[in-house]
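ok trying again, last paste got cut off:
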Amino acid sequence: MDPARKHQKYEAWIAACRALSPMRTAVVHPCDESSLVGALNAAATGLIRALLIGPEARIRTLAASLHLDLAGVQIVDTAHSHAAAEKAVQMVRAGQVDALMKGSLHTDELMAEVVRKDTGLRTARRISHVFVMDVPTYAKPLLITDAAVNIFPTLEDKADIVQNAIGLAQALGIAQPKVAILSAVETITSKIPSTIDAAALCKMAERGQITGGVLDGPLALDNAISRDAAAVKHLASPVAGDADILVVPDMEAGNLLAKELSFLANADAAGIVLGARVPIILTSRADNLRTRMASCAVAALYAAAMRSPVKT
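nice, full thing came through this time. structure:
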């Protein structure tokens, strides 16, 4: 691929956000350099309006040490990271913010408040994570789900995981995303349970239990993303070789796949959690500035779509 085409996918989404108002975003416990700089950079470009939730003195000390200007940035003072997560969720429930962004606290600590039964941000959908990958060797965006939240999802969980990913793809401009349900093989066998789940998910889509996308599976990874590999296996499918969404069997498989693409194929991986009342931006300390901006852009486009939902 021409190096000049690298990251055009992310840049297009960031550009699309210029038509949107900055997304009110609670940045939860931004108490290290990467999370604070990332939030302020996203705010400076107009993607978000950052509200920093955490120990104010610590945040200001960190900003001063990094020569960062906090003028005009609202800080909501909390004692520690757990209190920051609790406060951020309260602000969502009160309609004060449109998204959450993970700072330097652990993902489990933030998500524990999000999924809390009485005071959290649950909806009727299963909460799931999507990596939105910009892979230099693939011609279009590649969504991988779920690689961060659901460890061993059930069939019913996977139905929600698929539906969440379809909704995100549509928000990113993919009208009818092609969804590949991954396994190790293309044939259905009781010896590999993920092939049974894949077949069931495809039947659920036929019966209208999953809508908005074109599903096929089980598909091995090569057949999902390579037309040549699909042709060798004689797979006549609108999805094989041209997938927009890869649905993995479990979190281990998804996490390995996303990291392999990142570190061996020079891909970037924006991350977002779906299925809650608002999108949740999960960033890693290893994320570069472009990836952080892309995560904010993806969340902003999805939040805008949630405000004027397309029925899926």
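cool. Residues 1-5 have pLDDT under 50 and may be disordered. The CA atoms of residues 247 and 299 lie 20 Å apart.
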